[in-house]
Amino acid sequence: MPQIFHHSTNSLSKFSVFGALFLAVGGLWFLLEVNRSSYVTRAHEARPQPVPFSHAHHVGGLGVDCRYCHTSVDKAAYAGIPPTQTCMNCHSQIWSQSPTLEPVRASYKTDKSIEWTKVHDLPDFVYFNHSAHVNKGVGCSTCHGRVDKMPLVWQEKSLQMEWCLDCHRHPQRYVRPKTEVFNIAWEPPADQEEKGRDLVKEYNIHPRTTCSTCHR
Amino acid sequence: MSAEPGVPVVRVDLSGVRRRLDGTQGRTFWKSLEELAETPGFLEFLHREFPEQASEFDDPAGRREFLRVMGASLALAGLTACTKQPTETIVPYVKAPENVIPGRPLFFATAVTEGGYAKGVLVESHMGRPTKIEGNPDHPASLGATDAVTQAAILGLYDPDRSKTLTSYGEIRSWTTFVDTLRAALGPQRISKGAGLRILTETVTSPTLAQQIKDLLADYPEARWHQYEPAARDNARAGGILAFGEAVEARYSFANADVVLSLDADFLGTGPGAVRYIRDFASRRKITSERPEMNRLYVVESSISVTGASADHRLPVRPSQVEGFARAVAAGLALAVEGGTADHADLVAALVKDLKRTDGRSVVVAGDAQPPAVHALAHAMNEKLGAVGKTVAYTAPVEAESVDRLASLKALVADMLAAKVQVLVVLGGNPVFTAPADFGIAYAMEKVALRVHLGLYDDETAERCHWHIPEAHSLETWSDARAFDGTVTVMQPLIAPLYGGKSAHEVVAAFRADRSGHDVVKDYWRAHLGGVDTERTWQRVLHDGVVAGTSFPEKNVTVKLGEWARVAPPPPAKGVEVVLRPDPSIGDGRYANNGWLQELPKPLTKLTWDNAVLMSPAMAKALGIVTTTNYDGRLENGGKRISTGTISDVVKVKVESRTIEGPAWVVPGHPEGVVTVHLGFGRTRAGRVGNGVGFNAYALRASTALWSATGVEVTKSGATHLVACTQDHWSMEGRNLMRAASLEEFEKNPEIVHEGGEEPPAELSMYPRHKYEGHAWGMSIDLNSCVGCNACVTACQSENNIPVVGRDQVGRGREMQWIRVDRYYEGPPEAPETYHQPVLCMHCENAPCEVVCPVAATVHSDEGLNEMVYNRCVGTRYCSNNCPYKVRRFNFYLYQDWETPSLKLMRNPDVTVRSRGVMEKCTYCVQRINEKRIDSKNEGREIKDGEIKTACQQACPAEAIIFGDVNDPESRVSKLKATPRNYGLLAELNTRPRTSYLASVKNYNPEIRRG
To answer: Which residues 124-143 of chain A have a CB within 8 Å of chain B?
Structure first.
């Protein structure tokens, strides 16, 4: 009886067996990478806002402190988005006729809030607390990046759990002196690991990694 | 009702019960007669995590069909995981209010009223949304605790069924149209000096409202103000007049009482001072082996109550026998009282001796349902015992205008029938539903030309009125009210009226000129507060939640033993008697539309979503009552397969010409020859939740027999009714779940509670031991303090966004409450001892649930919390299958209401709202732990002992629940766990539970023979 399969089938079957494995692993890797990509996380995507508020101008240019607007960042879970009143503190005097600022004036007049687009949007089952971080030497720019260089704010980091856990497991890599928390231009020194270790000790930092720290 | 052939129907055989009880040695605790009789169905049920029917998918499509369809959709569903999050918006304030920090709740002091009396509360507000009610530690009726009803007031506020519009003959009208109509109708009244004007209110303690009504009556001198309350304390008032010649309010200090005698008084369960009384009473039951002294409670009662369940000696009698007993005790105390019963002579003699022994540190309390003579007798006995000033004090009546409320309503009905009334303004209450059946109030009201109703709901009374005005909720209004001791709370609103409701103050003010409730209340207090800086004082009063120094001073009164002491009561009636009481959960019916309260298992019967005709086991046997508990989900009812709950025979209860029909329910310890029915059910216009639930017991209630009636006929109607009862749900298998001892035994051997239980060595586990270097959270629950009031259950429901599942789902064993209060009986079914045991997640150190979760959705924290990670849970339910305590709850359906806008406002923003297919359970209020942890870290300090309070602990009136760090030997919880009464539930399984219990101790009088 002649052979049914050509002998090249041998190589073909070997190739397909290993190829399938390779394809499966590769496919999984691909999916994970897609999930981490900014396509899913929407990192580095400048988001349009009802008023094109520029952090680059206000923080980078004018040097307004973070806490002028985000008043509760060191007191509560939420950093706080400023009320229209805060905008009007200045803009009732300067640029008071600017058409760009019309929604701000309208909000102030009609008592209707401006609806800002949420840029850093954690899932509803995640409970992040700003005050716990800001008071322990985690600077604004560590998570939010150089906001002073963003005309429209984008999300700098992935905000995925592995990113959170990286810092919770190795705080010494990220922590900075408390005096530098609101210094947006702060750069980690060359010996950050070493300095960070001292700070972790000094600030009594014990980052928790149990689930209920953030999920409840 | 018929069962499938061959399927064993579970019927309770009382002779089996008897055999089992006779055969046992030592103590046997049981939850239901089914358990006691060890029916095969119960045993099957016991071995399952959820009852069999709970897992059943019984849509018409069927499980197979469902799986087929789901298989295809699941295959496609994988793709949806790749979706991005939807874009959300942030809506900041335009002008931020002062003191509001987003994410930080504010607490405002105010009061929630029930029956006119204030219960002081602190309400948690998240950016203007009230979300949770806590007790006000500065308020005398609260001392920081609350009851279940007060906890549930938050759901009452956001109830989507509240009336939302002002209507006239069903048409929507404006407030100004109403005011115009009212003033037009008042024109002729001005001429007749108000001869045809009547105001009907509930009990009023509000000084401002009373002043407003009095001012109104000055304008219309012939007009009348009537008050009515279905559960009014008229008998107590009449008893005071009988004894002292004037109406008084009796105020008790149970903290000072060594011996308490309750004459049908449910002072721990009902009444304006109940929360405070539980605190005081329980403070005398927290015994240690060093200080083994506790109070002793005797209860003589004609029904069942949480007070009776807490008694050391309880005597169930007929309602008509209580007075005879009271007279016998009074005679024993050498008072010139006649007509005492000769029954129970031994008990009376021992009781009298015990009362006298304490030198005035004893007290006799008469129940609201007892006739005035019993109250007068109690006053006389207290005076004789020297208790006045020690355990009881008398003050002026707390009501603004003390009247006999039944007589007041009777006069109004007579005037209406005589066509003397042209304008009737009903301010709150639902008299058409709650008035005695013989008054025919609905008919009488037809004769009134203009009827106006102010109420939270478009209810039965609103239906009979021309105008209906939506009332503003307690949490939406400016008002004031007095507590049981007279202390005033000025109530401030937490939120603007959601549906434009008006308060009684605003409606009464509208008779003259439109004024806001704020102005009315503030003007009154500006005139009455005094002080140099009135505005400052006003702010202080609002901040504190009490007006200092408004508690009523004690009055000196002396009992005059009049004719009433010598007249013997009518001999106890023959035949069956019926007892009528407000429902322990929904009260007189005003909370019928509150899902939390409807689903709250009643303290003793554990019934939900129903009332029933309660009776003793012997009576049920005589009537041939069959209750068939459907443990296996294979019963049929009228050809239709049902898989829920318990089916009970319906009985007809007939008093004179009045009848009701309801399911019979057997209650161990219920007095013989008596049936109890609870009021408040059978509403027709309560709302979507309360309509048609249960039967209307007001139909039995006559003005001559408000609380009990004699000459009752009880017959089986032939029908059956499906009841959702939770008494056997989550039953645990094993020995020594409940531990109790008598004080005598405990004094002799404090280790007695550990006998029969064993705690295996910690090394026994296969898994490495957890190390707890920082905090280690634990809880201690004192079973001797717990009275089973259910405040913890509702507090937990409110704090943790726990959904309501409905009667059908409860019947399937799918109720979601994270904490349950197990009620155990011990002894013969006719007169058992009753115990309560709150059971929540034990947070085991060797947790059986953790090791079986395939997706690590339930894990152990470094502080010993057994954590539940909702976003990981895939719903295998292995964890609950492996939990010996059965404290895990599964979202079989999408129970949470994700649609109704008002309910979204109510939720606690710090707790995830769970979805379908997710397991959940007690978290030890981890959101509260985290909040305090972050606060303490931000402030650079350690968490203080007692700083973190779980929701159940904070609500508990008895302070039975203590939470804290077991790693700190100085913490309160560590010290409690070191006492000899401490034991772990099912500790023999080596689960090492973090929640432990302090055994119950009963203080029996050695002179009284038990059993």
So the answer is: 124-125, 127, 129, 131-132, 135-136
